[in-house]
Amino acid sequence: MRIGSNPEKFKKELETEIYHRVVIPVYIPHFEDYFKDALEIFKLNIHSLLKTCHEKTRITLFNNNSHSLVKEYLDELYRDNEKIDQVFHSKENLGKINAILSAVKGNLEPLITIADSDVMFKHNWQKEVEKIFINFPKAGLVSPVPNSVSYKYYTANNFFDAVFGSSKLRFQKVVEPSEMQRFEDSLGPEVSLFSEKHLEKYLTLSRKGFRAVMGAGHFVATIRREVFDKGTNSPAFIKIQGGVENKFIDKPNEDLGLLRLSTMSNYAYHLGNVTEDWMFEEFQKISENKPNSFTEYSNTNFLKTSKLKIKIGKAFRKILLSKFLKKKYFKMIGLDDGKNY
Prior knowledge:
Layout: E1 20-26, H1 38-52, E2 57-64, H2 68-80, E3 84-90, H3 96-104, E4 111-115, E5 119-121, H4 125-135, E6 139-143, H5 156-164, E7 168-173, H6 177-186, H7 196-200, E8 201-207, E9 210-214, E10 220-224, H8 225-229, H9 244-255, E11 259-262, E12 268-270, H10 277-288, H11 307-320, H12 326-332
Parallel strand pairs: 1-2, 1-4, 2-3, 6-11
Antiparallel strand pairs: 4-10, 5-12, 6-10, 7-8, 8-9, 9-11
Helix pairs in contact: 1-10, 5-11
């Protein structure tokens, strides 16, 4: 039986002062071979985040069937840290995307940062990312790690805005080439991502004097929640590879007419699966900094870009990056030699 009325029924709207959520899926099944240093890497990840995120932030940790000691550590983090307000445990490894979707769908924040558990956050990462959302109202996905080759991928709206809108394309000198090289190194010795030219200049988009790098990766990225709300509602049946992130993140962002950008300087590290001395040295620098302030980001509604404009953007991206025009066009916007860039 039921006696009386639940008082929550009369509260029509949910309200929160928190506007930024960080979601981190964690999968550490054991402590051998590939996962030998995984827990130590994750500790650098979560403690760097706790030291650098502002007070308007909350953190969700999703345990994808990790070792029991990892589960205990996650529960300990939840008990001891106010900013970690959600820890989910799954007895199956649901994969990165399903873990993210599980967390995102049940929260209210307009900005959602997704990050792998091997990311170390630097001081001011959040402030610099949020500044891009403020200065580019149609930004949909922003990374704190610039990548000079990402201008090619899912950037149709960037090109449309540069050709027909209020933004301008221009090559600029890479602010921190050594940090970009460090990112490539973190991917393993078999990966060659950047040429010498990529470490010298990257393609940037500017609006009213504010500049950001074209394109972004998503091992750590901040995304407007509309990308999840208006994207596909189906689950992901592939854990990591096979274009699963394209389907659930990249394509919805582009289909909404939103921009894909990165910060000019590097504000996070990809650590990989092996600890190195430099990681602890950099973490010590983070420890010495004061906590971040928040930007008072206010979520702005945006008009969804028409399918025609998105198609035009894709067409211009294809034309401008074609072998017939790319070299000439890139020289026109500040690259001395656009060949093989």
